[in-house]
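Predict the 3D structure for this chain.
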Amino acid sequence: MRRLLMIGLTLGVALTACGSVQDAASEQALERKADIRAIEQIEVKWHKASSTKDVDLMMSLWADNATFTFADTILTGKNEIRDFFVHDAAPFQLGNHWISDTPAYKMRATVDGDKGTLYFECHYVDVDTGKVVAYVAADQQVARINGHWVITRLVAATPTLSV
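Done. Predicted structure below.
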C-alpha cells in the first residue's frame, strides 16, 4: 500500500510539473503576442498623429535619444525630430489635408525581449482629391522603455517595387 501511495505521489508531482511547463510556454506565447500588438500600436498612433497633425502624439512614439534617418539627413533626439515634424513634414503642414494609412500586408513587427522591429509603409491620401499624394516606408527599431514601446531608430525611404 505504501508503495502504491509513493507511485501515486510521484506521478502527481510529474504531471503537475508538466502542466507548469505548458503553462509557462503558453504564458510566454501570450506575452509575445501582447508585445507584438503593442509594437503595432506605434503604426496606429503614427497614422492618427499624421492624419490629425498631432505633433505631441507623434513625439510620444519616440525615445528621447532616437534617431530618424531620411535621404541624406540624420536627426538625433526628440528636439530635432519634433522640429522636423513641426516645420518640414508634409503631412503636418497646414495646407495639406491628408490622411494616412498602411495596408495590413505592408506591415510587420518582431519582438525579442525588450527590443523589436517594426516596418510599415504610409500611403498619404489627399482628402480633397482622393488621390495618393505620397508614400513612405518606415523601417524601425523599437524598445520597451519604462513599460512603453517606442521608436529608437527609424530609417525612412520611398519604397520601390521590384520584379
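The CA atoms of residues 59 and 82 lie 7 Å apart.
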